[in-house]
């Protein structure tokens, strides 16, 4: 079974990102691969991991984790085959908390697949541009289809201090289903690479 994480990419209180992630989870639950028992989606909230600003003394590429919070985060990410990053756009970029969480790890991301659901005044598309570059460096295959939610047309917001309600346009759910299908397909296709890497790491070096 393919396991996909839906990562809530903001830690801000009253974040609209959590509302968007819940919508992604609801739609994913209706995906044919999920109802057939071939895939599963799980929401992963950065808030639950309490990651500080990157505090590992050794670069993540060496996987020499010294802190319990890093190990816990690494075990969580390692257990998934692919990811849906749900992200707002802050000042033309993804949130610092999301980039920080990504930078804690390296191998745990490798040879997996990612898709993006973004939201904001500009639908978050500029944040995703940066995330695609980061994912490529981490050997994560980016699927082409993207869901971009506008703060003006895809949410019902009466108070800017509250997350509001999600009200996606008619085209958004079919686009999301298409993106999820791509993530599942690519996650399956990359499995031999993940298996090969796992076997090579299990063999002791003489």
From TrEMBL:
Residues 3-153 form the NADPH-dependent FMN reductase-like domain. It comes from the Bacteria. InterPro entries: Flavoprotein-like_sf, FMN_Rdtase-like_dom, NAD(P)H-dep_reductase. Signal peptide: none annotated. Pfam families: FMN_red. PANTHER family: CHROMATE REDUCTASE, NAD(P)H-DEPENDENT FMN REDUCTASE LOT6. This is NAD(P)H-dependent oxidoreductase.
């Amino acid at each position: 079974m393919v396991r996909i994480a839906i990562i809530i990419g903001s830690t801000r209180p009253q974040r609209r990102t959590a509302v968007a992630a819940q919508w992604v989870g609801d739609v994913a639950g209706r995906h044919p691969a999920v109802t057939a028992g071939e895939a599963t989606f799980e929401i992963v909230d950065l808030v639950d991991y309490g990651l500080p600003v990157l505090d590992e003394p050794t670069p993540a590429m060496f996987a020499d984790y010294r802190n319990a919070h890093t190990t816990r985060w690494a075990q969580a990410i390692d257990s998934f085959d692919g990811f849906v990053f749900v992200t707002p756009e802050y000042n033309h970029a993804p949130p610092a908390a999301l980039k920080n969480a990504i930078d804690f790890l390296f191998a745990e991301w490798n040879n997996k697949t990612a898709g993006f659901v973004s939201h904001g005044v500009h639908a978050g598309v500029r944040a995703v541009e940066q995330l695609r570059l980061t994912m490529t460096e981490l050997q994560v295959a980016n699927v082409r289809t993207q869901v971009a939610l506008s703060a003006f047309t895809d949410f019902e917001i009466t108070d800017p201090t509250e997350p509001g309600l999600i009200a996606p346009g008619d085209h958004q759910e079919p686009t999301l289903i298409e993106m999820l299908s791509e993530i599942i397909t690519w996650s399956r296709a990359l499995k031999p690479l993940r298996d090969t890497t796992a076997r090579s790491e299990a063999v002791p070096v003489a």
